[in-house]
Write a structure and sequence with these properties.
Blueprint lengths: L6 E4 L5 H12 L3 E6 L7 H8 L6 E5 L5 H15 L4 E4 L14 H29 L2 E6 L12 H21 L4 E8 L5 H4 L2 H8 L3 H9 L11 H11 L11 E4 L7
Parallel strand pairs: 1-2, 1-4, 2-3, 4-5, 5-6, 6-7
The chain binds nicotinamide-adenine-dinucleotide.
Length: 261
């Protein structure tokens, strides 16, 4: 599928979907830059798990993507270390469930900064090198919430709609430069991000945690099953291939039929 070994950065890749994407690219022999805001010591075991069986370089880059300077600088660090960056996967994201009138403004700011702000900053840092070589892949992990809304998720829904809009706009700008820009829009994937919101959802809806899983999380997904992180990883690999060169500016759903409704 690949003509070359690629250099890949996956933001927020010590857990969940990002970790699966990083592992898959590493298994395929590419050089992989892992990232989160955690210390090297805290992520040591995770980095080892990605390195296992990898034939390319696997390296960890600490950066708090709530900070615009660190987001922009992360790409520079990866380019300095790997020589260049071919594939940028903007995956880092956080969640908070609360009614809009009680939504803490600090959480609003952080959610927008980590997902939408950092996606803008990493893209603007990565595009010049990709343009120079005439090849690049930018994949933004948005969400079904980039296409549909749910109550009590004002910051997350606004962020993910913003990520889809940013994806389209940049895709048009770089369309003639050999760079594709796409958003992946997963439905519910069972990861720490989803597990962590079950208690909050139970509180705001006044129901049990089991009811949250059945009546809220899986209710919009016609398959009644969580998407697996590995499925999202495989889609990211395909979008990074040469065969996907004509796919750009899209928001591709992987949501068990959610957005067909
Ligand atoms: P997760 O909580 O399992 O992993 C999030 C990752 O982001 C972790 O590695 C964490 O360290 C990192 N991160 C968080 N804040 C950061 C910061 N400030 N700086 C750097 N790294 C930071 O989450 P997940 O469920 O795997 O979600 C990954 C992405 O997929 C997010 O953008 C999320 O919105 C999106 N998504 C998730 C689902 C789902 O159901 N899990 C559905 C649709 C979209």
């Amino acid at each position: 599928m690949y003509s070359d070994r690629r250099r890949v950065l996956v933001t927020g890749s010590t857990s969940g979907i990002g970790l699966s994407i990083a592992k898959r690219f590493a298994q395929l022999g590419h050089d992989v830059a892992l990232n989160s805001f955690e210390s090297e010591a805290d992520v040591h075991a995770v980095v080892q798990s990605v390195s296992y069986g990898a034939t390319g370089i696997v390296r960890y880059f600490r950066a708090d993507l709530a900070d615009p300077g660190q987001s922009f600088g992360l790409v520079g660090q990866v380019i300095e270390s790997f020589g260049l960056l071919d594939i940028l996967v903007n995956n880092a994201g956080i969640q908070k469930v609360a009614p809009v009138e009680a939504f803490p403004p600090a959480d609003w700011d952080r959610i927008l900064a980590v997902s939408l702000g950092s996606t803008f900053h990493t893209i603007r840092a990565a595009v010049p090198g990709m343009a120079q070589r005439g090849w690049g892949r930018i994949i933004n992990i948005a969400s079904a919430h980039g296409l549909r809304a749910s109550p009590f998720k004002s910051a997350y829904v606004a962020t993910k709609h913003g990520v889809v809009g940013l994806t389209k706009s940049v895709a048009l700008e770089v369309a003639e430069l050999g760079i594709t820009v796409n958003a992946i829009c997963p439905g519910y994937v069972w990861t720490p991000l989803v597990a962590g919101q079950v208690a909050d959802q139970a509180k705001v809806h006044g129901i049990s945690e089991n009811q949250v899983i059945r009546d809220i999380l899986l209710a919009p997904q016609p398959t009644k099953q969580f998407v697996q992180p590995e499925e999202v990883a495989e889609l990211a690999v395909y979008l990074s291939s040469d065969m996907a060169r004509s796919i750009t500016g899209t928001a591709i759903s992987i949501d068990g039929g959610w957005t067909a409704k």
